[in-house]
Every structure is written in C-alpha cells, then in structure tokens.
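Anyone else keep sequences and structure tokens together like this?

Example one:
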Amino acid sequence: SLCCGFTYSNAANYLISNKATSPGEIITHRGYDFKVGKSAFADFESFLAANTEDNSIVYVADGTYSKNITITKPNLTFLGNNAYSDWTVTRKAESIITGNIYINASNVTINGFKFTEKGRIESTSATNANPLSGIKVLHNYFEGMTIGRNTHNPLVEIGNMYTDATVNSTTSQCRYKDCEVSHNCFKGDATHYANAIAFGGA
C-alpha cells in the first residue's frame, strides 16, 4: 500500500500556527481551512488543552515553538512543515522545536520538525503494567543543539536506561513496543554532541 501522509479517513485535522491569534479567523493550510479557537491554535499548549478529537492529524506550521510540552492523549500525528521529507532534499521553512516534547501516550507520531538548542523528545513514563506502543519519530532534523556533551539526555529517548541489576528484571522490560525512529538527521559539532538515540525497556 502507498501512504502519502497528509490525510487519513475518519481523522480530524487541526493546525498549530504562530499566526492563529485572532479568534474566529480562518487560516488556510495545505488546502484545509482552520478556524482559530476551534481547529487552529497558536501553540502546542493551547491545542493540548482543548477538547480535541481522538485519532487526529495536527499540522504544525513553520515557526518556532519553544515551550516544553507533555502529550498525554493517544493517537495524535503531528506533522511539521517538512513531514515526510528526507533531510537529503531541500527542506522548506521549518517548524522549529527548542523545548522538550514528553510523550506519555501511545500512537503518537512526531514527523517533519527541526529540533535545535535544547529541543528533544522523551518518553520514559511507561511501565511493565502500563506499556506504551506506536511512538514514531520520523523525518526530523536535529542541528544547533546546546545540550552539553556530558549530559545523559539523548535527543530521542524512549524508555529508561538501566545499568544495575534491575536491567534483567521483568519489571524493567516490555514497557515499549512497535516504536520507530527513522529517516532523521542528527548533526552535532565539537562543542555540543549529546547522544542521538536511546532505547530502554523494550
């Protein structure tokens, strides 16, 4: 089957855009019309606080989004301005993330963003009794990070890292399943080069 990535049946569409500041205004993005305050929001926090539908596609327009956010609602696909675009091709204006994205829900996709400064993705809340699945980190570009090279905060962290006897405990395992990190680019420098990807508790 072929998936082009921009529309799904039975899914609601939303928009996050720095321009969505006037309640009731209609903003057109990727051929869809969004109404500010109902289906268009100025930032991630406003969207996550709204009474939005399950199984939603959330387009995120180009611009900079700097606050830390926590995603607790499952079945959300966040599509940045370069969703499904490999880093090897010329990318459009970026949807830029400079804070942490914490994922505490299943079936959440982060696709087509640029992460810079302290921007990173973390999901460490799953337990053996309450596992998470279907987390996908795709087609993102990590560059210009300011996370120190001696820190223990990888840019994409899924699961807790264990180094002692608990690593072999059944409660430390089977916390995450069916997760995917692919088609991303990680570009460091001599001063800042945090670990790129860390999986634990799979």
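And example two:
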Amino acid sequence: LASEQIDEKHMQAARLLPAVEQVLGCASLQYHDVSAVLSTVGPGQFTGIRIALSAARAIGLASGKPVIGVTTLSAMAFQAIAYARQHQLDAICSLLPAGRGQLYAQWFDTALNPMDEAALVDISDLAHQKMACYVYEQHRPIAALTGQNIRAVSLHAGRFGTMMCHENWSMIQRAATPLYVRAPDATLPKKQANLIINKILVK
C-alpha cells in the first residue's frame, strides 16, 4: 500500500497528478496496472471535489479503467463499524463541518446501509442519541459533540483502499458524480481535465 497526502490548500490542482505518479512509482506500478480509480464525491469543499473528480475521470478515461465514487460521509461511517458493533449501537452518524454554523450529516446502520440522505443540519440542533455512534474527522473537531460513543476518524487516502475489501462495499459505492448538498459556488479550471489526460497519454 502506497499513499501520499497533500496538505497545501491552494496547490491541490497543481500537485495532485504528481502525487498520483509518486504513489504509483512507490508501488512500482504504471497507470495501466491499476484496476480502478476511486474518488470521494463529497460533500465538502466545492473546488476540492471538482479537482478530485476531474482528475479521477481523466485518469480513468486515459487508462481505460472504471472510476468509482464514494461519499466522504460513508467513508467515515465505515471506520466506525467495528466500534458500533462492539458496543451494540444501532446507528452511526457521520458529521463534517460545512461552515456557516452548519454540518453535513448522514445516518448509517451498522451494516453500512444509508438510513437517510446526506443533509445540512444546524450545529445548534445537533441532538445526541444514546444508542448511536457519532463520527467526525480527526483534524476537524466539532465542539457540540459531547458524551460517549464519539469517534474521530482519518480521511487519509490509504483508508479508502481498505474499504474496497469490505463485505458491504457494494452498498456505498456510487457513480463518480459530485455530491454537493449545498449549491456550489466555485468553478473548476476548464483546461484541467484535458491537461491531465494529455499528460497520461504522453506517458
């Protein structure tokens, strides 16, 4: 397993493809060696979602490999399944800060079946249920979360690879189309996808 993480918020588009190539090099692989391309589809920052999906589609198109989407919220819930089952909890609630005093939220059962659609909720309306596990991203704590059965999870790329081996993987994979929840207010550079495709084809 090889992975690379980009921490610069304003250099994602420029650094994404070099990072992909570095990961492939570490694993002694070429683009044609991969079986599929996996990308998160949101919810999250609009520009980040569009950059990721544009790159994933371009790599899939150039390499002839399928492109699979997974929501950030389901990836978070996946990491809490073992804890929820161990503590005999009924459900998992994934939460992500959405700005403007709101959270992206979605409920899953302990088999990873979505119990509702991803939605925006006000932080002030967040009600804690005793028989549920609440999950947040470890670098983005939510002050309103208090009490037991609260889990911090990682959105490191390496975590997503393990999801594909899970027994309930088919329940959370989806088309690689963006899940914004909130209407987008950002645009993707028009030439980005073509630049990625051309670079891969040259190789």
